[in-house]
Amino acid sequence: MAVSKRTPAVLLAAVASALTITGVVLAATDSNPSGVTRDPLALHGYPPRSADLAVTVSTGQSYSVQANVNINFNTNDIEATLQVPLVFSGVSIDARFLHHHLYATSTNLSSVIGSKWLSTKETLPSLYGLSLEMTKPDISLITGFSHKTVTKSGYFTTYDFSRDNVAVTSLGAKSAKLPGVGSVNWSITTGAEGEVTQSTLTISKKSSEAILSVTVLSYNKPARITAPPANEVKPEDAKFLMGILAKTPIASLLVPQNLTSLGSTQLS
């Protein structure tokens, strides 16, 4: 399917979910009375019920989208607040994925979308598999990279993958547009019990660069996500929401031509 035909929900879902395993995470440490540090993100072998994430999508050219994302793995719902640079000012967008709908609103864009929440039908894939990957990803299943290094620091283990001559294209590219050639660098850090705690995905092509990052702020905190009141919702088709997204430089973001989930990642 052409990238340009993807709905905003798929794009946001990719940022809010796929990037939880292809972003940047900095986990703090805490000390117990005995002075022995412990891992505050440890999951003790159980998949997380929820995750609070800080997401950054950057083009490497002083443009970046900042987002705070809450995922409820039990209900398969996502809530996100995005800070998006638009022309000469910043725009704050609130988005929610639940009940097979994407809801979005922005006080900054009230002159364009009005004061109500816009909604469009959209079904998210099951997030349970993602919660399993975050519990203890099988790094050995990541293939297709030419270089791999492993670094240990305290109870953190960082895996760095890289490969040159990878087919890359822009997020908003037409299907007929031939991909270019670039490089991919992927860093994944796991904590004391193997849970995902840190990762960075950088895609480069000549003078262009894209950096995808996620920070896990916490696991298993309450994440109750609710739909906006029905009288505050205005149904719209996906094309309208895509048009709003197209006003930002995010459509030019570089992505690998073929990149699947962490559990079976292959580059070609």
Labels describing this entry:
single chain; 268 residues; mainly beta; outer membrane lipoprotein receptor (LolB), chain A; 13-stranded mixed sheet; two-stranded antiparallel ribbon; 4 helices; 15 strands; 11% helix
**Helix and strand composition category:** mainly beta
User: How would you sum up the global shape?
Assistant: globular
How large is the share of residues in beta strands?
35-45%
Q: Helical region count?
A: 4
> Whole-number average pLDDT?
76
Order of helices and strands: HEEEEEEEHEHEEEEEEHE
Q: For the report, how would you describe the main beta sheet? A: 13 strands, mixed
- CATH class equals Mainly Beta
Per the CATH scheme, the topology name is outer membrane lipoprotein receptor (LolB), chain A
Binned, the helix content reads 10-25%
Please count the beta strands (DSSP E, at least 2 residues each). 15
Domain count: the total is 1
CA-atom Rg in angstroms: 19 Å
* CATH architectural grouping: Clam
Identify low-pLDDT runs. Answer: 1-36, 259-266
Distance between the termini: 17 Å
Architecture overview:
With 268 residues, this protein is mostly beta strands. The protein is 11% helix and 42% strand. It has four helices and 15 strands. The strands form two sheets. Strands 3, 4, 5, 6, 7, 8, 9, 10, 11, 12, 13, 14 and 15 form a 13-stranded mixed beta sheet that branches. Strands 1-2 form a two-stranded antiparallel ribbon. The radius of gyration is 19 Å and the shape is globular. The model is unreliable at 1-36 and 259-266 (pLDDT under 50).
